[in-house]
Design goal:
Strand order of the largest sheet: 17-18-16-15-23-24-25
Helix content: 25-40%
Shape: globular
Radius of gyration: 23 Å
Length: 531
C-alpha cells in the first residue's frame, strides 16, 4: 500500500467528487496529485410517471448514501482506512430540468429531468421574449409551464434548482449553483457572470398578475464561478451523506456543477477553440467560443464553462439507449441457445462490427428516440428500424446504423454552428459510454462530426472526476486560473489517442444523414399512429 495516500486519507487531504448521472451515481476520490485513488457507484434509472421522466426524492437521497457507502468500502479494501474527512467536496448532476422546493427544502412536485420535451410552446415564447435561445430542457421553461397551468404549489415556492444544486443544499444549506449549471436554468450574461437582469424583469412582468409572494430573482440560486467557496458540510448534511456518523462536518464544498461543465473539465476543454463531446444516454458537444455568435439559434444552447466562458452546446436527448436494448436482445438470443457471454465482450463484439460496415450503412435507417427529441421537433419518441427490400441488411450495417442514428440529431445542431456561424474547431475530446469499445465510438464520432476525435487516457473517470477536480481547484489553486491548473496540475502527463475520419466515411455519413432527415416523416407517422 502507498503510505503517502494512506496519510492523505487519514489527514483529510483528499478531494471527493460525486456526480448524479442518468443511469449511475458515481463517486471519485482524488489525492493531492489529482489522480483517482478510489471510487464508488450506485445504479439507478429514471421513471416515466404520468408522462414525466423523473427520479423520486427518496431515490436521490438513497442513491447518494449508497454511492458514498460503496466508496467507503473501496477505501477500506484498498488502504484499510476509515473515511472521516476531506479537504473539499463537489456535487455534480445532469443539467437542466427543475426541482421546485419550499422553505423546508421539500420537493413540491415530481422532479422533471432534462429528458422531458413537453415545453415546446413555452420554449419558443420565452426565446422570442428574451431574444435568446431557451431550450425545452431549461428550468425556466418548466417554471413558466407551471405558471401557465396554475400549479397549486407555486404560492409556497421558495427555490428552484437543478439536481446538483438541490443535493448541494441538502448538504450545506446554501442556495447556490456553479455558473455552467446555472446557464442551463436561465440565460447568463458572460460579461458580468450572472443572470441577465433585463430578462429576469421580462419574466417577472409575465407573472405579475399571479400575485405570488416571490419574484424570479428570489427563487433562483446564487451564481458562483469555479474556485469560489460554496458553503460547508453541515452536521445534518454529513449524516445524510454518511449515516454512520463517521464523516466530520465543516468540510468545504465547491460550487455544484452540471455534467456538461464537469465533462469540459475532465477532458481539459475549457479554453476557446477547444471542444468536447459527452455521449451516453444523451449526447452533447460543447464548443468553447472565441466570440459571441452572430445570431441566436434554438438549435444550440448558449451556456458557459465553469469559469464563465461562452459555450455553444449542441444537445440530443437520445444516444446509446436504443442500441443498448438491441444488444440486450441479442444477449437473450445467445442465452436461449444455452450459451453465455460476458456483457462487455458482447458489446465489444457487436460494436466492432460497425468498422466492417458500408460507409452509408447499406441503405438501412433507424431512429433511437426513446424520449422526445427537441432538435428535430418531437415531444415524445418511438424507436424504430426500417429498410428497403434491397437494402444491404447485415450485422455490420445494422450496428453502424444504430451508432450513426444516435448522433444525427446532435449533428444537425453542429451543422448550424459550423456552416452558418463558421465556427472552426481543431479537435473534439470524447468521453462517456459511447467510447467504451476501443476505437469504435471514437471512429464513428469522428465520422459524424467530420472532426478528429481525441480520447484521453483518463476519459473513463468522467464527470465525477471532473467535479472532484473542481473541488481540488478551489482549495489547491493559488492563482484561480482553471486552464492553467488543468494544464499544469492534471493533464501534464496524460496520454491520448486521436482518430481522423476518412473522406469516404464522411461521404457515407452524409448520405445517411439525408436519409435520416427524410425519414423523420416515418418517425412522425409512427407517433401519430401507434399508442
Amino acid at each position: 500500500m502507498d503510505n503517502r495516500i494512506i496519510n492523505e486519507l487519514k489527514n483529510g487531504e483528499t478531494c471527493l467528487g460525486i456526480e448524479f448521472g442518468s443511469t449511475r451515481i458515481k463517486a471519485i476520490l482524488i489525492d493531492s496529485t489529482n489522480i483517482p485513488i478510489a471510487s464508488g457507484g450506485f445504479n439507478w434509472s429514471n421513471s416515466l410517471i404520468d408522462g414525466i421522466w423523473t427520479y423520486s426524492e427518496n431515490e436521490i437521497k438513497t442513491g447518494l448514501q449508497e454511492c458514498y457507502l460503496a466508496l467507503k468500502k473501496d477505501v477500506i479494501q484498498k488502504y484499510e482506512v476509515k473515511l472521516t474527512n476531506f479537504k473539499a467536496i463537489g456535487i455534480s448532476g445532469m443539467m437542466h430540468g427543475i426541482i421546485a422546493v419550499n422553505k423546508n427544502n421539500k420537493i413540491l412536485t415530481p422532479f422533471r429531468t432534462w429528458r422531458n420535451n413537453i415545453t415546446k410552446d413555452e420554449s419558443e415564447f420565452l426565446s422570442e421574449k428574451f431574444s435568446f435561445p431557451v431550450a425545452q430542457r431549461w428550468t425556466i421553461t418548466h417554471l413558466y409551464k407551471f405558471v401557465l397551468e396554475n400549479e397549486t404549489f407555486l404560492p409556497e415556492l421558495d427555490y428552484i434548482s437543478t439536481l446538483s444544486g438541490y443535493v448541494h443544499r441538502l448538504l450545506t444549506g446554501e442556495k447556490v449553483l456553479g455558473i455552467d449549471d446555472a446557464s442551463g436554468m436561465f440565460p447568463i450574461d458572460v460579461k458580468n457572470g450572472n443572470y441577465y437582469c433585463d430578462k429576469i424583469q421580462i419574466f417577472n412582468s409575465l407573472i405579475n398578475d399571479k400575485n405570488y409572494k416571490w419574484q424570479l430573482e428570489d427563487i433562483l440560486p446564487k451564481v458562483l464561478k469555479c474556485g469560489e467557496p460554496a458553503g460547508k458540510l453541515t452536521k445534518k448534511g454529513s449524516l445524510l451523506l454518511d449515516p454512520s456518523g463517521d464523516l466530520t462536518p465543516g468540510i468545504m464544498l465547491c460550487p455544484p456543477e452540471g455534467d456538461a461543465g464537469t465533462g469540459m473539465v475532465s477532458t481539459n476543454s475549457v479554453k476557446p477553440r477547444t471542444g468536447n463531446v459527452s455521449a451516453g444516454t444523451s449526447v452533447f458537444a460543447m464548443i468553447v467560443l472565441e466570440k459571441e455568435l452572430k445570431e441566436n439559434s434554438t438549435k444550440l444552447d448558449l451556456v458557459t464553462t465553469p469559469d464563465g466562458n461562452l459555450v455553444a452546446m449542441a444537445h440530443s436527448n437520445n444516444c446509446t439507449g436504443e442500441y443498448d436494448q438491441w444488444i440486450s436482445l441479442f444477449n437473450e438470443v445467445i442465452e436461449s441457445t444455452g450459451n453465455k457471454i460476458n456483457k462487455e465482450d458482447l458489446y465489444d463484439c457487436l460494436l466492432s462490427q460497425t468498422l466492417k460496415a458500408d460507409p452509408d450503412c447499406g441503405g438501412l435507417l433507424a431512429f433511437g428516440y426513446i424520449s422526445g427529441e427537441h432538435q428535430t421537433g418531437f415531444s415524445e419518441g418511438r424507436p424504430l428500424f426500417t429498410r428497403k427490400p434491397d437494402s444491404l441488411f447485415n450485422l455490420p450495417n445494422f450496428m453502424r446504423t444504430q451508432m450513426y442514428t444516435s448522433l444525427c440529431a446532435m449533428r444537425i445542431g453542429l451543422d448550424y454552428l459550423f456552416e452558418d456561424e463558421k465556427v472552426t474547431l481543431d479537435c473534439l475530446t470524447g468521453q462517456g459510454g459511447f467510447f467504451k469499445t476501443e476505437k469504435v465510438g471514437q471512429t464513428i464520432m469522428a465520422i459524424a462530426t467530420h472532426t478528429p476525435v481525441k480520447i484521453l487516457q483518463s476519459a473513463g473517470e468522467g464527470g465525477a472526476w471532473g467535479i472532484a477536480l473542481l473541488a481540488s481547484f478551489m482549495v489547491n489553486s493559488k492563482d484561480k486560473n482553471l486552464p492553467t491548473f488543468l494544464d499544469t496540475k492534471v493533464f501534464n502527463q496524460t496520454s491520448e489517442s486521436i482518430i481522423t475520419p476518412k473522406q469516404e466515411d464522411i461521404v457515407g455519413f452524409n448520405k445517411f444523414l439525408e436519409r435520416y432527415k427524410k425519414g423523420l416523416k416515418i418517425e412522425r407517422e409512427s407517433i401519430n399512429s401507434l399508442l
